[in-house]
Amino acid sequence: MDALLDLPQLRTFYTLAQSGSFTDCARKLNRTQSAVSHAMAKLEELAGVPLLSRKGRELGLTEEGRRLYAACEQAFATLDAAAEDLRRHQSLGRGRLRVGTTVEFGTSILMKHMQPFLTEHPGLEVDFTLSHDLLAPLLRDDLDLVIDCQEHPLPALKKVPLFRETYVVACSRAFKRAHRLKVPADLSGCPVLSLDKAGAWWNRFLMAVPDREQPQLDRVIAVNHIRAMIHAAAVGMGAALVPRYSVLEELERGDLVALFPDIRPTEDRFSIYQKKVKATHEKQRLLTQYLQSLSPAEFGS
Asked: 33-47 vs 22-29: helix axis angle to the nearest 10?
């Protein structure tokens, strides 16, 4: 392999490998597809080996391409960190940070807590993506940092635990009275709200209920969004199993009441995930420290 590989061509290759298509790569780099194709042809000529593999419309990497991609990931992370360090004498916390998080956590919690951080770091531009698909954009560098309750045990990622996500069964006061809900078994025959029609969403609750109190959930109303489920519960459509942080205000106002306080459904844990090669970047370090400083009580934990 020629040692004098061209840096712009390597950046193009790295972006192309992440995006998986010439169209997306060209858009991200603000270049034409033909310019991207030309850069890849020149890079493969300099490398002396094929770097890209094509199966129909699918674009992949050869073994040599995967090795070069790993080297590019380390190299560009180092260069980005060096550029950030050079700017540090001007002002800490500058640049752009792309944050991803789950829809309900982002809506209920994160948006309410970010303004103090942004005020403290006015030179830092932060953009947010609320989605349940966070791993793929993180791995292809569309996001710099994600906050997720799903486990992502990948060697390339750094995990920073934040808080435990506790769950609560909640309904309106009128619904509780109408169905005389005192113990979990009383849910039998009652409408319950679930992210899926089969009611698998409720398994984390059912696993914590003693056998003698097990309800038969045979009236499941599927609602594929937590916030919509909360609104449905508040107007008496059914009982809902939701993250406690998502209904703190509704519980405080009395729009909803918590059922079965002695039952503790299986918990999840929210964590920060970021690529290890980027975890030392100043902007990511600042946000990680800020998120760790928030009290778990804010999240209902």
From this structure: 100
